[in-house]
Each structure stands twice: as C-alpha cells, then as structure tokens.
Hints:
16 strands, 38% helix, 16% strand, binds pyridoxal-5'-phosphate
Amino acid sequence: MTSKTKIQFLDLVTPHQELKAELLAVVEKALATAGFIGGPMVEEFEEEFARFCDAKFCVGVNSGTDALRFAFMAAGVRPGEIIVTVPHTFIATTEAISQAGAQIALVDVDEKTYTMDPVKLRAYLEDGCEFDKTRGKLIEKKRKQPVVAIVPVHLYGQTADMDPILELAKRYDLIVIEDACQAHGAEYFSKVDGGWKKAGTMGLAAAFSFYPGKNLGACGEAGAITTNDEAMAKRMRMIRDHGQAKKYYHDMEGYNGRLDAIQAGWLSVKLRHLPKWNEARRALAHRYHELFGDVSEGMVLPREAKWTKGVYHLYVVRVNDREALQAHLAEAGIATGIHYPIPLHLQKAYEGLGYKKGDFPVTERIAAEIVSLPMFPQLTRPQQEEVVSKTREFITARV
Ligand SMILES: Cc1ncc(COP(=O)(O)O)c(C=O)c1O
C-alpha cells in the first residue's frame, strides 16, 4: 500500500478493530490459564470448524502448508511416489508434496474456472501412466514411479469440478486431498450424490489455511485439516505433535505442527462472522458482475460454474495489458494484486521438474492476464463503484 492508496486491496484492520473486545478476551483467558498449546480452546475450535464444514473431524495445525503435508503423510504417501496437482496455484501446494517426500506432477487448469481440468487429468492418467499388474499400481511412464494422489485446488474460493476428479480417483485407486486453503465455506453440487457438498468433505482429507488474509484468517499463522476418516484424523493429530498420542510415547517421528490456543480462540471468534462475511463477498462479486455487465470486450470476468457456490476469496479479472491496468488503478489510489504471476512449472525452484514454456498453455495465458481487484467484506458501495469506474475508463480507452 502506498501513501496514495485510497482503496485497499484488502482491509484487515477494520474487522479486527470491530472485534477487538472479543479478541482481547481470548488473550485474557489464555493468560489466566496459561493454556497456550492445545487444550479446550483448540478442541472447541476444531469442533466448530468441523461443524461449519459438515466434516466429522478437524485437526488444527500451524499452517495450510503443514495441513497439506500432514494429510499426505497420514494418507500413507511414500517417498518418491507421485502426487498430481495444477501449475496455477500458490507454491505451498507443491512445496507440501516435496516436503512429504513425494514427487510433483502437474496438469493444466480449465480456462473458465481456473481449477484442475478433469480432461487434462484424465489425459495424464491414461496417456502418461500405465497400470503395472505386478506392482498393482498406476505408474508414470516417464519417472517409473507410482501415482498415488490428486490435489485439486479450490482456487479463489471456487471449488474444482469434483465429480469427474473423484470418478478418476476411484477408477485408478488414487487418494484425493483437497487444497481448500482459499475456500472456507465454498460448496460444490455433486450430480453423483445429488446434493451440495462443502469444500473439505469431498476428498479423503482437506487442507485449510488461516493466514490472516484468508476468508477465515487467524492473527498469525494457522491451518487445519478436515476429514471424515477417523483413522486419518488420529494419525494427523499424532503427526502434528511429535508422533505422540500420549505424552512422551512416540509411535513415530512427527513434527511440531500444533495450532496455538490463542489463535484457536481468535479463530472461534471470527468463525461466528464467517457466514456473514462470505455472503458479503458473494454480494460484492455479483455487484461487480452487474456493474461490469455491459463490458463485452477487453475484459474477462470470473465465471462461477453452475456446480459451485463460490466464497470469492479473490475477484480475478483478465485483461490484455494487465500491468497498464494496475498502473492506471494505482494512479487512482486503488490497490490490486496478481495471484499468481509466474506459473509453478516456470518457477526457478522447479527447473528440475523438466517442464518448459508451452507445457500448460491455459495456465500460462491466465498468468499473463489476471488482476485481482479489491475484495473484502467491508468494501463499500462507493469504493466498489470507483474501482469499476476506473477499470472501465481503462478498458474503454483500449478497445
Ligand atoms: C492455494 C493455497 N494452498 C496452500 C496455502 C498455504 O497456506 P499457509 O500460508 O497457511 O501455509 C495457501 C495460502 O497461502 C494457498 O492459497
């Protein structure tokens, strides 16, 4: 944010000021009991968040990245095995795969939803892999390693198209771990099950991030894993706590990956407001759509597929000259973001994976054109109108 900024990309101060008394009461409680690690505040939040997600179990951990890593480990992913995800996501998705000792495979996203394209996933599983009868496993032809899991990312607050992904997972006996780090409360209409399902209940487990800027954010680092599988929940509780179910009895090596009690208490306070905040985000998204409605050229608006009820963690548009739009908006005091400018397969960190430019054309096209406009529950009507008016000014001058 520069001194010129009038409209922030995200206002994190106002909600915390509004909830100050309740948030400070959590600190008082922790100080009075010295219950800083684990204990009732963590257990209460885990129960509340599981209920919010319609999941049976929730395991609080210290970040979304560890939530993913612990889920892979608890699901039994072994070193060298391959996990498939998308190149259009935050690097934490793939970092967690490597940190669990597994290898990364990528498939492109869908041009309309920006989430995993089930057609590309099928192509990878059918053409890039073959079933090895002796090992009883699906093996990637190139690396000769078993493919064991799929990680659909519910990006920007919209779910991936889960029915065909789950169908492929079933056919090839693969685990599905949802990356729901941007999708607290998002829903998916499953034709297979004939009803709406919450993000975090469709795979074997799902990872959530409570990084402060998320729809449900802590006042620091925090994350959680949801699952309907009791054995998974038990293993994840052990992994986050040095591999122990009972103090100083270590069945395995684990991590120091617990959720702080104060963060859990703060998350409980904020969770009570999440349905209202998510509704506000949806209303703002619909209003952006309305206000931009007649702009038919020069800009692509986010499209909510009929099978998803998004929670608009981000409102992402596409334009040809995105740096120029950002500069135009910055000149008018409007902050924007890019999520994310460099596809993962073109990052220096992943040179060793052997991908090259052109391998994932949809992701590459998107990455060059996307701009995230201001989106947070407290964004006012006049502020939103100003964002739209300045964006339109730019688009009209260009087409
Ligand atoms: C899609 C996605 N996956 C994983 C993460 C990792 O979460 P955290 O920052 O809490 O480790 C994030 C959040 O930054 C994310 O947006």
